[in-house]
Every structure is written in C-alpha cells, then in structure tokens.
Amino acid sequence: MNQLLRFTTAGSVDDGKSTLIGRLLYDSKSIFEDQLEAVEASSQKRGFDYVDLSLLTDGLKSEREQGITIDVAYRYFATPKRKFIIADAPGHIQYTRNMVTGASTANLALILIDARKGLVEQTFRHSFIASLLKIPHIIVCVNKMDLVDYKQEVYDQIVEDYKSFSSKLEVSDIQFVPISALVGDNVVNRSEKMNWYQGATLLHMLESVHIESDHNHIDSRFPVQYVIRPQSIDHHDFRGYAGRVAGGIFRPGDDVLVMPSGFQSKVKNIFVGEDKVESAFAPMSVTMTLEDEIDISRGDIIAKINNHPQSDQDIDVMVCWMNQKPTAVNARLLVRHTNKEVKVVLKEIQYKLDINSLQRIENAEYLNMNDIARIRIRTAQALQYDSYRKNRITGSLILIDEQTNETVASGMIV
Amino acid sequence: MNQYYLSHLKELEAEAIYVIREVVAQFEKPALLFSGGKDSIVLAYLSKKAFYPARIPFPLVHIDTGHNFPETMVYRDWLVNELQVKLVVGSVQESIDKGRVREETGYNASRNALQTVTLLDTIELHKYDAAMGGARRDEEKARAKERFFSHRDEFGQWDPKNQRPELWNIFNGRKQMGEHFRVFPISNWTEMDVWQYIQQENIPIPTLYYTHEREVISRDGALLSTSAWLKLKEGEMPEKKRVRFRTCGDMPITGAVESDADTIEKIIEEVAASRKTERGTRADDKRSETAMEDRKKSGYF
C-alpha cells in the first residue's frame, strides 16, 4: 500500500534548496519533457549557460520578475514506494509566515545546511519552527559536499554541532545525510565519492521514515463538520454526523460523549460513502450515526466518556502573527478552531520569542508580522480543545480579522 | 506496524471530502464547475460520497462553449441523471450573441478564454458564493501556489500576492458582499492519482479518454480533431488515426495523442510512461510563459 508523506523545505536563495527539489523531481523522473523544455528555454532567454532547475519551482510572473519566491508552492512526486507532497517555503523576510504555513501540514522537515558555512542563524530558525509546529521528523541535509572535497570531518563536525543545538528542541526523530544536490550525490543515487558514509540516501530516508504513528490513535476526537439529514422517503430518520477523525479510533458500539452538551450515546454505524466500516481513525472522513437522537451540530466534538478534550474560555496559545497590520492587547478578533468560529479578545501578550536566540522578550506591547509569541485569549464561548503537543488538529487554531476577513495569525494551544 | 493508516488514495479522498463538506457548511450557495473532464467527474463522485445517503446539495454548473465534443455532452447528461443532481448551463454562445464577448478569429481561434466572462456572469446571475473546480496544483506552475479556498474579489479576480495563509485544515471562507470563492478539493492530486482513483472506484468516464479512430490534423506538435470549428491551413491534410484524449477541453484546441489504450489499466500504463504533461496538448497554455497565470488573475477556472 502506497502511503503519502508530506514534507516541507525551507531555505534562502543560495543554500541549494531549489536545486535539491529540482534534483528529486528530475532523478525520480517526475519532470516532463515539456516542463524541462520550458525551463531550458527560459534559462536561455535569461542568458544562463546552464539549465536552472530552480526555474521549475518559481511559479508566478511577479516572482520571476523580482527573482524571489513569494509564497509556499506545492510540488508532487512519487516513487514505487510512496507519494510525496513538498511544501516549498521561500526564505526571505516573510519567511516565518510561509515556513509556519508549510510546516502546519508536514510529517517531515528537510533542513539544508551549506557544508562550507555550517550552522547559521537560519538553521536555528528552521529547526525551531519545525519543533514549534511539532513536525515529527527532521532530515538534516549537509549540502554542497562537493565544495568541501567530500571530507568526512566537515560533515561530522556539522552533525555534532547540530545535535548539541537540537537537544533543546522537541523533535524526537532527526536523521543526517551528506549530499550534493547539484551533482546528485546521495540524493536519489548513492555517492561514489563518500565511501565513509554508510547511511541511506535522502530518497531512501524519505521512503522509509516511519509515519504510521504520526497521527494520534489514542485520544478519540471527532469534530462534527456537517449534519447529514436526507429527508427522503428511503432514509427518513437518517441523521448522520459528518467529519474528519482528529484522533483515536471509533468503532460501532463505542460509548461516546458529545461536547459541549455532555450528552452520552453509542456509535451505531460508521460510513465512508455508501460503505459501512469497522473503524474510523485519523485522517479519515466519515459519517457517524448514533443510537440516540440527540441534538448535535457543527462545531461539537464527539469523544469518549473517559477521554475527552478540555473545555475553557481562557486559553494560552503560541501564535505566529501573519498580517502586515500589527495587533495589541484588547484586540477583538475571531477564532476558528476545528469547525467552530467564535469571537475572541487578546487578553495578554505573555512574551515574544526571538527565534534566532530562543530568548524571551518580556513586556511586548505589539505583535508584528512574523512575530512568534505566547498570548492568552478569552473566547466568547468555551472551546473544546487539546494541547497542540497532544493533537495537532484539536490543538490548532487561526485568528481572523473581523473587518477584513483575513487570516491574521496561526496558533498552537499550549 | 499498526493497521491504522491509509493508502495515499484514501488519504487524498478523505482530504477532498473534508473540503467539499466544508464548502457546504461555510457557504450559502455553492456550485460545482463541471467541464466533462475526468477531474470534475472525480469531484462529482467525491461529492456523492461526502453526502451519502443525501443527494449532492449543490448543482453542477457547465460552462458550455458550444464547441464541445459530442461525447462530453452525452456523458454529462448521463451523469446528471445517475447522480440525481441539478444541472445549470452557462452558454458562451449566448454571451457572444448578447455582445458580452467577441469571438476570436484566425487559425487558432478558441472559445476557451471567452469562458471566463460567461463563467463570471453565471456566478453572478445565480449568486453562487463558492465555485468548486477540479484544478490540481500539479497541472501548471501558476496553480502550484493556489489555495484550497481561493478568495476572489468582486470582479472575480485572483490576486496571487494577497492570498490568505492556509494552515492545517482550517479554511477561512469569510467574505464581503459580492465576493466569492473558488475551491479546489483535489488540489493535492496528480494526474496519476486521478486515474488510479477512477480505477479503484470503477468510475465511468467519457469514451474520448479511450482509444478510438478519429480524423485529425497535426498542428504545432498536437493532433487536433477535425470539426466545423477548426479552420484548416493550406497544406493541412486530415487523416484517420487511432487516438485518445488526455484532457477534455474546447474541441478545436484540445490535442489528441496516438494510443491503443482501451482500458483504464492501459491508460495508467501510458500515463506512467508519458514524458509530456497532459497540458502539453493544450494550445491555450502555449500562448505565453504566463498564459495560465494571466487567465487566472482575470477569473478563469
């Protein structure tokens, strides 16, 4: 069975990120002739004497005019073992916002380090955001090994430096690989120039990293997205709760608790389309029917009697502010959490984080674009939530500006 | 290894169903843009799954260029009956007759670009506030940065520099009066995923996708079907070939490929071995390096 792995990459102009992505697509034969021809033609038009694989990933005209990437782009490739989705986040000033966006759906982060430069400020930022967004796996690619004569000492030193830094982060699974994206060493094909390296190639790591446990299969959570009531003669009494399982496993016969009402019932049937299934787990989209007729609507959460989310109006959240317009204490906003939208007020900015040094900045009055901060919010109605650490779905939220309707912040519940 | 994980097709299906349900929950009057192509067919079948046993709670909207393959129309009417869903047709011919748009002339004339006006008029007439489409991010570079929920201003335009950030699976469909959204539930699917899903779910598709004998001419590397709407250049000689189509667009500009694939299995083999993208057969994308981006900004699908 082919699985799906979503990973994110981040980097700045010169670290070879676009070249690496181009290499993965090219060596896995995911680039088509007409795409390559188009890239060759535009490389020529620009007067380059080589084919610039990064042109494959620069999508929009305005970006190409400025020579920068302005937004997260999604790329796809597949091998006989897995299908991959790359969230390619650019690395300029709006970097934090884009990296957070790309990281929010990723199982894995690729961190690129230039072998000539070692760990730089950006390495710390990328790694911190990966850990903040609870990406379960990190692969550190020590790139441009061709430019340091494929020396093992260089690689070993970088690995050691990274390990001592990353002990402060909450990421359990970190792997390392020495590569040259430009020449293709250890990306898809094994390098013949680094016999001292006994580990896997990057693609092999991507194909084999254990992702089956990335979803929470212990704490049962089913946010109700939509109520299906056919009102037809054949299905006169049918009342199905449609949604995507956010955690745990539901089976027919399970005792369940509906929040916030507190009603209890039993799962009757679980459907995927017309088919009844024996169990539902994240990230399945299903329709559930219950034994009892109780009042349930969009935004409610179905959980288990002995294991359910917290319910509260005062909530501590790590946020990334994503809008040009700054905000301050007492700002009134909307929060969207699972399938619920309620009014919220920003009660307190507890501290901002300097994401280069991980130092706390106390007494902050404003949140500016790309700031990461711990705040306290008070919601108009209680939210039923888990900590982000426990569940990336019931622990995440976005904030919306009520006037402009823009998404202004992303939040991870502490 | 535990048994609680999904195949990539099941995971993509779950994601698409989630997005479709979110549209119905967040908007007052959604619609599904139906082109007759395999992507919008898959979208229609996903919609059926999303709301079973209820019927699909939104109409299929077909923007009819008047230059359709007859096979597409036969299939469309069959599907509407099969799914018991409402069909709404927006006619490009009517837009031309009313003087809303002017027909292109010349050898590569197409009604493809004219669709945008008819589409926006149809959305306005029926007051649709969300229009779902089968576009995928792997199709074209301007689409790689498209959101699932794509905000359009009151002129139906897309502003790529001012897209809302989209995190996790939390979709923000809030809008001002007069604005609408385009929503792309199968954003994360590739051409191969679509074919594998059609196979897995036994979804019937129009006969155009299978090999058949057809009179074609060869122009700029593409095989175009002869029809009343295709103006032949001097020296162009129609000949009969065994071909099939990889996409179903406006008849005069949708190129065929020579093929013997008469089953889904053979189509999948062919797609796997192909070294050209499916849009490589579309003359409309070849007009300039940014043809798709320019059309998208003005409100194209």
From TrEMBL, chain A:
One of its GO terms (biological process) is sulfur compound metabolic process. The keyword GTP-binding applies. It comes from the Bacteria. Pfam families: GTP-eEF1A_C, GTP_EFTU. Its EC number is 2.7.7.4. It is an enzyme of class 2 (transferase). SUPFAM superfamilies: EF-Tu/eEF-1alpha/eIF2-gamma C-terminal domain, P-loop containing nucleoside triphosphate hydrolases, Translation proteins. Keywords: ATP-binding, GTP-binding, Nucleotide-binding, Nucleotidyltransferase, Transferase. Residues 2-215 form the Tr-type G domain. InterPro entries: CysN_GTP-bd, CysN_II, CysN_NoDQ_III, G_TR_CS, GTP-eEF1A_C, P-loop_NTPase, Small_GTP-bd, SO4_adenylTrfase_lsu. Signal peptide: none annotated. GO terms for molecular function: ATP binding; GTP binding; GTPase activity; sulfate adenylyltransferase (ATP) activity. The keyword Signal does not apply. This is sulfate adenylyltransferase. It comes from Chryseotalea sanaruensis. The lineage of its organism: Bacteria, Pseudomonadati, Bacteroidota, Cytophagia, Cytophagales.
TrEMBL record, chain B:
Residues 30-255 form the Phosphoadenosine phosphosulphate reductase domain. It comes from the Bacteria. GO terms for biological process: sulfate assimilation. Its EC number is 2.7.7.4. Transmembrane segments: none annotated. Residues 272-301 are annotated as: Disordered. Belongs to the PAPS reductase family. CysD subfamily. This is Sulfate adenylyltransferase subunit 2. It comes from Chryseotalea sanaruensis.
